[in-house]
DNA sequence: GAAAATCCTGGGAGCGCTTCCAGTCTATGG
DNA sequence: CCATAGACTGGAAGCGCTCCCAGGATTTTC
């Protein structure tokens, strides 16, 4: 650390200092064969002494590999993105990308302009591949995802389109188990608070609910729908109480809305789980801190991000992985 | 859309089709002067017909500008990052970067390996600049931030180091106002639930609390400290009740911990705000949905991200902006 | 001991774009 | 009608790295 060079040293300088050709220097950089012990050593030393770091851009241009993967979150921000759900997904994805030595480009693509930039990013080969999440039915982002020639993996299936590669949680199964859990507890008048109906995840969770009800010989309630936020859950619960005063169980499509339902029930003077039992979905932190604590369907959120990224990495590497459905399970707490 | 070219067209192909030189084509691409109307038109047409998109990497290599900014979140994931706080910050930063046509590289740099990759990313000039957040005292990430030659802006000042460029919220002022708010409500035995003491934000909020107490001629309580999570707030509140059974007001360093405090108070049979008034900090969504709803200090979180990114953009552009402190204000709700 | 196989080595041609520069062309002004 | 500033134009030199390839050195094989 004697002198601080103003410009980053280049591979040519390393080669010169080591007394070898640039090709040779490049070879040791990439751990390629055909370099004698001595030269390899000399190059390593020169690299160390010069504090050389290969220029990613130049390498990217030559190899046609960027070393970057995009994570696209299509939903309206901040509403969707503020959900801790995506924070978790990002943590998982980030870890998996790191294992493959890829960097993470985060693209929030709700606005028109954001979408145009995303499209250019993909067409300009600014990334090696992309993960798509939170896509709604007829979302223009879906077209971008379908038309790109780059490897693409979906985290959660989009509504109305079955992609070749995706990772998803077992939403139908989880919802069914949640509903069955309520039925097992002796509830018979079980309602549901649904998410936005233009998302696949809402539809699947609703389907699971219906299946369980019908299997038990019961009539499913028409779902109240919210937008995955706490207040919308409270509103939906209030409405449910009006339409079905005798309701004794509620399955909410996520924990936020379930928390809202708990609040609404408390406001209406109904005891939980005494009068009405409640089950959520996601198993976010909030499920542990509501009162009563929330029975919910656990899904491995970080894994979802992790596996989505791993799948993308494999796709980029030329493999052809298979879609993946991650298991869900009921976590019983005090609300049932 | 007649034929789908397998390879992306290059600028040479555009130039050839338009019957001009590559230089000329490049000029129209960059809206540079010295191209005749006709040729400019011809190039535009060729671009359209070929569906040409300039290769970002090649451009980056030639111009030495990546078109990418890094957002580094240093804190332990998922704990820190799962906080909706950072999701908001990202939304703001993303919007500001988009205005400057920069992409966002998200770097979670808690682990050793992540840090090494970050360091290489910066040294290899893989980004044009970086924003640093959630840095703790003696955090190794701080060294990386200080040693890079790239433009760097801090979102929130790190403990023990005053950077040249940062954007921060007025934590001291906000904490003082929060405490004064409690005092105005007639509380005299006001305690504080603090965050981790190795973060600057915790220290500043604590300082604001002390200042307000001392100014009012009252003895500040020794702070209970948590880690910004709800359970830690509940635990701290419980402890506070043991040490100071007569406590009649509490200022928590963030809303999550304040929510925990509310829960602990309810568990202890204390009425809020009747027996104990509570104020939080951040004004996250959670503050609206606790019961009672939470009086808190509002800080413009999205703006924090937005301004941090804007400052970075200016720095990259060669300006020398000044540090920025964003205002905070008390939002009175039902907990006081 | 000669031929063949194997390993090193550095030259050079890209990757796709920007930008400098020298040369050409046009429109003025005297 | 000629000199001259000024706007065009395309050739060519990079940006920093990878990788093919031909030539030379070194072994291996019979």
TrEMBL record, chains A, B:
Keyword Transferase: no
Transmembrane segments: none
GO MF assignments: DNA-binding transcription factor activity; transcription cis-regulatory region binding
Record domain HTH lacI-type: where: 9-63
Record's keyword annotation contains Disulfide bond: no
Coiled-coil spans in chain: none
SMART domains: HTH_LACI
InterPro entries tied to this protein: HTH_LacI, LacI/GalR-like_sensor, Lambda_DNA-bd_dom_sf, Peripla_BP_I
Keyword terms of this UniProt record: DNA-binding, Transcription, Transcription regulation
UniProt-recorded name of the protein: LacI family transcriptional regulator
Species of the source: Streptomyces radicis
